[in-house]
Amino acid sequence: xxxxxxxxxxxxxxxxxFGTLFDTAxxxxxxxxxxxxxxxTIAASWxxxxxxxxxxxxxxxxxxxxERVTRDALMYAARSAGLAIDEASADDLAAAYAxxxxxxxxxxxxxxxxxxxxxxxxxxxxxxxxLRSLVEGASIADRFDALLSVDSVRVYKPHPAVYGxxxxxxxxxxxxxxxxxxxxxxxxxxxxxGFEVTWIDRASxxxxxxxxxxxxxxxxxxxxxxxxx
Amino acid sequence: xxxxxxxxxxxxxxxxxFGTLFDTAxxxxxxxxxxxxxxxTIAASWxxxxxxxxxxxxxxxxxxxxERVTRDALMYAARSAGLAIDEASADDLAAAYAxxxxxxxxxxxxxxxxxxxxxxxxxxxxxxxxLRSLVEGASIADRFDALLSVDSVRVYKPHPAVYGxxxxxxxxxxxxxxxxxxxxxxxxxxxxxGFEVTWIDRASxxxxxxxxxxxxxxxxxxxxxxxxx
Lengths: 229, 229
Prior knowledge:
Two copies of one chain form a homodimer.
Chain A: E1 12-15, H1 27-35, H2 39-60, H3 66-80, H4 87-94, H5 106-115, E2 119-124, H6 128-137, E3 146-149, H7 160-170, E4 177-181, H8 184-193, E5 196-200, E6 216-218
Parallel strand pairs in A: 1-2, 1-4, 2-3, 4-5, 5-6
């Protein structure tokens, strides 16, 4: 990979956080104590509702930060399964989203890209505080030039104002940005904005039918440095 | 119920279509021939993806009519389940959404409200052609003063521009509109816009955690005329 960029500028690699750098499936571990065998179902429903609420709140013009959306989605997931949960407990459990582990290959790939001279940033639905907590917890804070949060535009992905945070910050054209996400709908939104997009297809899933396709696909971040499966 | 309205105007009752007047679960019957025992799973995944794509396309500023979104969502649902489907077959199956049956109590309740002097309208994600097909198929076309489609504003629910179609057409304040939906997120969006909202909770489900609550709840449309369970 030419991490020096196409054309004149340095390459800017922009990473989604949840499901791309950090393992959202790991919240199951934190739910087991409370929900037992229902934990995997609750975890999947929680994540789906969390995303659903980001889209709905954006469309309703009713933005609330990701901590709040995450807590509300957990309460809904529990209630939908017929399991009671109070707001204080939901707050405690929702904190799991600020302490997710990085996927195993992430620290090495980020270090490699940085050594090759690339500029690295995160662009995420997470609040600034959540993003700081995540990169510090995974000891990868020093890899990033910027942690860009939707919180500054008060609308969630895939609204174009979110992707515009990157071109505004770096003063580059959209097609000079290498965007990396494990979420197909995020890849679609980024591609529509004009980014060059790599889909990290960790679960061998179907890509979304939203009229946009990623430029390339890999099963983990090693595709960015030309190694791995 | 005072169908004559609160204050000076006639009451305007505005109904969501899919899951409120028309039974989306009935598409299972059309999927059985092709998907066999997988039909219920595909039907649920199809509906979830259909809604997801309306929200994502709205946020991405990539509106396509509901026929297209419905077809794309079916292709995704089939592929996600590891089942192949070509676009022509998806088009045929997706036509099921233009021929859904009305729930059993719907014709009687609409007739009753109309006899009491209420003005009735539909406000739906469906295209104008789909909505005409649905009301004609269920023999309830004469009940409605208007079939209002998101297609005229090219953004889906719960964007406020959609709910604004009602206040624009009838020249009434938002809180003079009686909105009726079986979809909690639609109820939340309508309530945020200012409508008086009745949630038709056909499946005894959990209401969404989006910071808005319906004014009342019923298990079917009979709650609007003060009878039923």
